[in-house]
Amino acid sequence: MPIALTELVAETDRYLNASKIADYCPNGLQVEGRVQVRRIVSGVTASQALLDAAVEQGADVVLVHHGYFWKNEDPRVVGMKGRRLKTLLVHDISLLAYHLPLDVHPEVGNNVQLAQLLGLQVDGLLEPDDPKSVGLVGSLPANMMPAEFAEHLQRTLGRQPLTIEGDRPIRRVAWCTGGAQGYIEKAVAIGADAYLTGEASEPTVHVARETGLSFYAAGHHATERYGVHALGEWMAERFGIEHRFVDIDNPV
């Protein structure tokens, strides 16, 4: 049975507490399509490739982590943005996007989902004094050497991480999916043995080398595939509709 778009959006917004989380983009319904929803196609980013896959699969809604209308983005509907929006509007497909609400959620969030996948026990927040902290800290069931943890990441995520090996075995791990390499010094401050994120920048390497912390950049896309997939499955079960996750390859 189909579900009304308005009901699906309202219930999902409540589930993710979307209105309470300040962000760099609008969360929730970004493009409005047909009023009834039978099938959702989800993916990490609302790229043209994902939209084309959604059209091919007869989606009523595209659900993503990275949507549109970011702060300081060019507001003109031209070029790539125009083509993407035209695809949605011509085919009457809605776009639902959840950025930070999907990073921090305690059940379907990117960071919690990554922990479950890697077998990490969640012990608390990366920033323990900030209830809005995105990153988490936890522990492995048993110590791993830095090279072993890199191999674990490669097997689990299907890509080789950029690795800076630290000077000690790893038990306590801090992590934050996506482009969160700037949090590395917070990981140092809480005494983590390793910090895991999606991307790296030039200063990150020096911080890791000079503190003895193991650092892993396992891919922005690769670390953020799991929250949107889990949210799509929650929506399918909650509303009795169909969900398909489409993984558009991205090496970053």
TrEMBL record:
Protein name: Nif3-like dinuclear metal center hexameric protein
Assigned protein family: Belongs to the GTP cyclohydrolase I type 2/NIF3 family.
Pfam families referenced in this protein's UniProt entry, alphabetically: DUF34_NIF3 (PF01784)
InterPro entries (alphabetical): DUF34/NIF3, DUF34/NIF3_sf
Presence of the UniProt keyword Metal-binding in the record: yes
Keywords: Metal-binding
Organism name: Stutzerimonas tarimensis
Superkingdom of origin organism: Bacteria
Organism ancestry: Bacteria, Pseudomonadati, Pseudomonadota, Gammaproteobacteria, Pseudomonadales
